[in-house]
Amino acid sequence: MNELVLPRPDDWHLHLRDGPVLRDAVAATAAVFGRALVMPNLKPPITTTEAARAYHDRIRLVAPPGFTPYPALYLTDATTPAEVRRAKASGVVLAAKLYPAGATTHSDAGVTDVRRLAPVFAAMEEVDLVLCLHGEVVDPDVDVFDREAVFLERTGSWLVETFPRLRLVLEHVTTAQGVGFVYSGHDRVAATITPQHLLLDRNDLFVGGLQPHHYCLPVLKRRLHREALLEAAISGSPRFFLGTDSAPHPRHAKESACGCAGCFTAPHALALYAEAFDQAGALARLPDFASGFGADFYGLPRATTQVRLVRRTTSVPQAYPFGSDEVVPLRAGGTVAWQVAPA
Questions:
Q1: Distance between CA atoms of 115 and 113, rounded to whole angstroms?
Q2: What is d(CA 210, CA 310) in angstroms, rounded to the nearest whole number?
Q3: pLDDT in tens, 285-323
Q4: Which of 112, 205, 270, 329 is surrounded by the most beta carbons within 10 Å?
Q5: Which of 10, 11, 245, 288 is catalytic?
Q6: Is 144 exposed, middle or buried (0-12, 13-18, 19+ CB in 10 A)?
């Protein structure tokens, strides 16, 4: 198969930042994707419905026609059930994001004790607001490569058992244990999968020297985990769908003594997913994964417009504009095997 036409895809896990870089970040995604669940870990974070509406409006101001953002609500120890109900009623917020405090970029205002938010989760269950999880513990005694598995043992299972009607997404799933968690739960448990976790494993952090632009959180895992993710992605299960976790950081912030976590994949994300599915002999299953299952889970209609992927070797630039700086994409200076063309 050298060509694939699919409904315009959606990105169910995206970072757009804010301020002078917002226009460039939006353009990179909106060139291909029609909708996006936008992460709320800004400075300051999007902790209220009012802030989510304002962020939505700022994105729309710089977005091309046809692109719809859905900012998520950032959960904190102070989030209330009333705020959850306001968020659901807004029509702008589809989900709330749980960051364990200190787990990743701009998560210092996150949740310190998940179980203390039980009234918030009950309200989310009541009004059917999706809970998106950054599923890692921050316990310094837990190996960084085990943080997802331990989080699911300690917290994920409690959430599923205590709130059986709560729709829950394990964001950027990275382990075989995470895949098993999704399959062992009810049909309201799902996961997003990133292109880097389908194509790379932890060896790729070090081949040819330390690779800062491959560093993301959750960190890349062993090959056996990558293989489990690929099997889940191509399985045809509606519980797994596209979420790039594309996270732009200026070059100087990535290439520093304490580099930021995040891979910038937005400009070539669909081509990267196509590579992974094609290598597995499952390209025909990409449309549901990229354009169908996520919309179904979030209760939105599937896109009626289309994009076309053609098998064509395409160069990836060394960098893209990012406000007054630049951002380095995954596979910078290399190539991807597919290209998005007019439908």
A1: 6
A2: 33
A3: 999 999 999 999 999 999 999 999 999 999 999 999 999
A4: 270
A5: 245
A6: exposed
